[in-house]
Specification:
The protein has about 250 residues and is α/β, with parallel strands linked by helices. The chain is about 40% helix and about 25% strand. It is built from 8 helices and 9 strands. The strands form 2 sheets. The protein has a 7-stranded mixed beta sheet, with helices on both faces. Strands 1-2 form a two-stranded parallel sheet. Helix 3 runs parallel beside helix 4. The longest helix has 23 residues. It starts with a helix and ends with a helix. About 25% of the residues are buried.
């Protein structure tokens, strides 16, 4: 629908996998409606019911990959699921969350200018164990948006949730960050503000509940991917600059 609203007149090929027969049936029904009423012979889709889409061949030529992968800890995975997760990740990552395997496979499946949009556990950006993934991420994709949304996104789930949007060979220079205080309803409020910012042309917003801003550098000079409030970011930048000035002055006086 967004492609249609933006005036795109080319063809669209959609591929998808899910372990839910209900989700597959719903997707096929809706896509068939779009094909018959809007896109006609310009829409092609292949939506498959599979037990584990990590075992499927995704290819390497996707322009857009959008995912909300399953957040399942290593301890809760079956033997077969552990094998499919391990096959997607470097050997040095110990006991990964299943969602990280989906993220890594998606990075490897993008086309030359492909875009990845993904809901992820915040541990991807903060855990030392996922450093190899972040190294590849920095080398291959420019971060367009990264958001730390907290624990109140999914019902009956305690996982700290983040969102990542990035593109290969992007000409977008700035990165936008969203930080949310970990309280119920604040993430939704922040996302509504993001839409207002994009519509009005404002650069940033900073409140006690959430921040939306473009940092000087992301990840920062210390290599940290952790998303913090705008106030904390300014303090960190000022402190780093002060340390650099002090170090230079001390060196020049020797």
């Amino acid at each position: 629908k967004q492609l249609h609203n933006k005036g795109y007149h080319g063809s669209v090929s959609i591929k998808g996998w899910d372990c839910s027969e209900c989700a597959i049936s719903t997707s096929r029904f809706l896509l068939n409606y779009e094909k018959e009423n809007v896109w006609k012979n310009k829409l092609f889709y292949d939506i498959q019911h599979v037990e584990d889409s990590l075992t499927q061949d995704w290819g390497t030529d996707y322009d857009i990959i959008l995912m909300n992968p399953p957040f399942v800890s290593w301890e809760l995975l079956s033997k077969l699921q552990r094998e499919s997760v391990a096959e997607c990740l470097p050997d040095k990552i110990s006991k990964p969350n299943q969602a990280v395997a989906f993220f890594k496979k998606a990075m490897d499946s993008l086309s030359e200018n492909g875009i990845l949009g993904c809901v992820m556990p915040t541990s991807l950006f903060e855990s030392e164990g996922y450093k190899p993934i972040r190294i590849q991420l920095k080398e291959e994709l420019h971060t367009i948006l990264a958001a730390k949304l907290g624990n109140f996104i999914f019902d009956n789930a305690l996982t700290d949730v983040s969102v990542f949007i990035g593109q290969k060979n992007s000409n977008i220079i700035q990165t936008r960050l969203i930080w949310c205080k970990n309280e119920n309803g604040i993430a939704q409020e922040a996302l509504r503000s993001l839409r207002r910012i994009e519509a009005s042309g404002f650069v940033e917003i900073d409140t006690d509940k959430y921040s939306i801003y473009s940092p000087h550098m992301y990840p920062d000079m210390q290599g940290s991917w952790k998303i913090i409030s705008r106030k904390s970011s300014r303090f960190k930048e000022n402190l780093t600059n002060a340390i650099c000035v002090y170090s230079k002055a001390r060196y020049s006086n020797r």
